[in-house]
Amino acid sequence: MDVRLNSNLEWQTVANSTLTKKRSTAYGSTVALKSAMAASGAILVLYLIAHMYGNLKVFSGQAAFDGYAHSLREIGYPLLPESGFLWIFRIVLLASILIHIYAAVTLWARARRARPADQRYQVKKRVVRSYSSYTMRWGGVLIALFVIFHILHLTVNVIAPGGRSDSPYERLVNGFQPEFWYVTLFYVLAVIALGFHLRHGVWSGLATLGVNQARRQPVLNSIATGIALIVTVGFLIPPVAVTFGLVS
Ligand code: HEM
User: Fold this and answer.
1) In this predicted model, what pLDDT tens digit does every residue of 207-246 receive, in sequence order?
2) Is 59 among the domain residues?
């Protein structure tokens, strides 16, 4: 009897420790995924701020805008070949996008597995949760589709509703003419989706970095809302200005 009890206890201890190990490994990799998501997100946010600022040069005229686009290709030259830095930068950007999407999909699948169909959440919590995960997930898909369209439109210029051009300024001005209002509308919707994505993303990224103690919550909210607003409005101005004839 004593022997059986002992072996049962031993078995339970081994089973418990395996479970604890499994849980802590899962927890560890969840933390790693969230950190990867925050780090790649931070690179993308910095890129967006720089890109948004660069786009505003459209108000300084064609020479300034094209000169700026050209100077990006000259960074590091002659140490690096022409456009060398730009390509390194593009690889970092693409890697960040892929890491960001991979971490998002893995975390989402894990959360789904941990939460079976017969939900145990209170209704209120579930509503809040599904609102943010819904906007993040579908907003993310829309942004990804937008980026593919956008590169084909303004970088590669194979989609060129207003005519093709070697000048980035002309590509921009041609692409948002009033008769292509639907292109502008698509940009507006995608940039608004980006704004919502950024607000929640910056907020949870800062939370992952451990900045979300209760007393810092209002600051955290203001930073997330501020960045989202600046990026959204900054990106919206050039296409809307072209469509309304303020830049030509
Ligand atoms: C809504 C206003 C926007 C305008 C007017 C705009 C304008 C441009 C232009 C003119 C280029 C080509 C630059 C060149 O060839 O030198 C470009 C490239 C690009 N844009 Fe945008 N952009 C906008 C929004 C966005 C947004 C919201 C994103 C990301 C979510 C984005 C991501 C990119 C990327 C990844 C490239 C390719 C950069 C490269 O050459 O490697 N853009 N954009």
Assistant:
1) 888 776 777 888 899 999 999 999 999 999 999 999 999 9
2) yes
**Closest protein CA for atom 9 of ligand 1:** 154
* Residues in CB range of 213: below 8 A, 6 or more apart: none
- In the reported structure, the alpha carbon of residue 127 is separated from the centroid of ligand 1 by a whole-number distance in angstroms of 34
Find, among 230, 195, 193, 204, the residue nearest to 37 by Cα: 204
Q: Is residue 26 part of a domain?
A: no
Residue 190 lies in a domain: yes
Report helix, strand or coil for 88.
helix
State the burial class of residue 81 (Cβ atoms within 10 Å of its Cβ: 0-12, 13-18, 19+): exposed
Which element (helix H / strand E) includes 2? helix 2-55
Q: How many domains does the chain contain in total?
A: 1
Pocket of ligand 1 contains residue 186 by CB under 6 Å = no
Domain assignment present for residue 17? The answer is no
The CB of 240 under 6 Å from ligand 1? The reply is no
Q: What is the domain extent for residue 68?
A: 35-114+130-243
Whether pTM exceeds 0.85: yes
- Render pLDDT for 142-173 as a digit per residue (tens, 0 to 9): 999 999 999 999 999 999 999 999 999 999 99
CB of residue 169 inside a 6 A radius of ligand 1: no
For ligand 1, say whether the CB of 70 is within 6 Å of any of its atoms: no
- Given a cut of 70, whether residue 129 has pLDDT beyond it is no
